[in-house]
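Ticket opened by: R.M.
Priority: normal
Category: complex prediction / small molecule

The reporter submitted a protein together with iron/sulfur cluster and asked that the result be attached to this ticket for the collaborator who will pick it up next week. Submitted input follows.
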Amino acid sequence: MSLGCPKALVDSERILTGLRAEGYDIAPTYRDADVVVVNTCGFIDAAIDESLDAIGEALAQNGRVIVTGCLGARPERILERHPQVLKITGPQAYEDVMGAVHEHLPPRHDPFLDLVPPQGIRLTPRHYAYLKISEGCNNRCSFCIIPSLRGRLASRPIDEVLREAERLAAAGVKELLVISQDTSAYGTDLRHAEASWRGERYAARFIDLARALGSLGIWVRLHYVYPYPHVDAVIELMAERRVLPYLDVPFQHGSPSVLKRMRRPAHAENTLARIRAWRAQCPDLTIRSTFIVGFPGETEAEFAELLAWLDEAELDRVGCFKYSPVEGAKANELAGWVAPEVQAERYERFMERARAISARRLAARVGKTIEVLVDQVDQEGAVARSWADAPEIDGVVRVRSGGKPLRPGDLTQVEVTGAGEYDLEARLTAPPVTAPRARAAPSA
Ligand code: SF4
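Result attached by the on-call engineer:
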């Protein structure tokens, strides 16, 4: 049902085009439809009344109504008269309308006709997938031009993200890697708008997202999280193994003065105290990070501060880059560029420390039994990963299977028998689990 001006009509056409392209039929009457979408007008009082009447008529004759359009920007007006509507979205919210239709009337997948499987086309192996929760970034780090390339933070509605995660899990994905430019900022641009998923209300908020994803019963790994105080709440979910006890926090430096010049988010936080508290609550927590050495103006004293910080932080997984200028970045205007040979020397010193810490922390795992996810199988056994290893960037666990058959995507228990600088060796202790396991739903 399309009401309002020609702009609203075009919106309706776009929604209908999207729905038809996905194989939905357009029904001529309310009674013939499985769900009704009412595109409302909210320009003047008479238009509001007409829209509210149309919603009432659709509810009376069909009962399953999704509301969109200008009046959708004032949901309280609609809910006052019609609290039973399934979903309310604002003007030009095509994606949200499509998402609401998918939720309440999921498209039928026809394997003979559909070119695209329900979980979409992915470039990763079948058992893991990236879940992008937002675009853009509201930070202004002085070495980065991503905000000018990709714009301000634009988070995806939480129900849309969760439905995608659900489809991926149903398609056999066993590990979700949550990505964005700033995962801890998720939903701030949406003012933490709430939505329903599996009968529960969730806010577009970092912790709600982690909690909901943690109820899917598969591995959930969080990347690009900044050490803001509100992030602390996720450590409890990690201690309970609702999400993997793994945090990818791009610290970039350990010297407050360099971090200030870098204009890093949360640069004033006491990160060492925060890491100590996280580990006290969740001793298995693996922290991965990246750093830049030789940032403009970095003195030997500031670099020494970074090394001391790293020694105390004892990060498990560390990557390092020598600063190189990016066209258009503010950092290019800073004085005191560090000579390439000094950068190279600092890089070596930094990586030597990081390697030693990594080796020490991995050695402490020898003798322990851990769960791993198999990535590849070869003649000697398998290359797998534990909670502490993100694909492509961290180490691996080499598993001797003792002749037992393993397949990519298997989850299995292994005993750690050896440790190197970045990788572990292990032997199989239990038969692999090939089906996704159910885990208890988290408390609200
Ligand atoms: S480096 Fe800073 S500005 Fe660039 S994307 Fe990351 S948080 Fe945003």
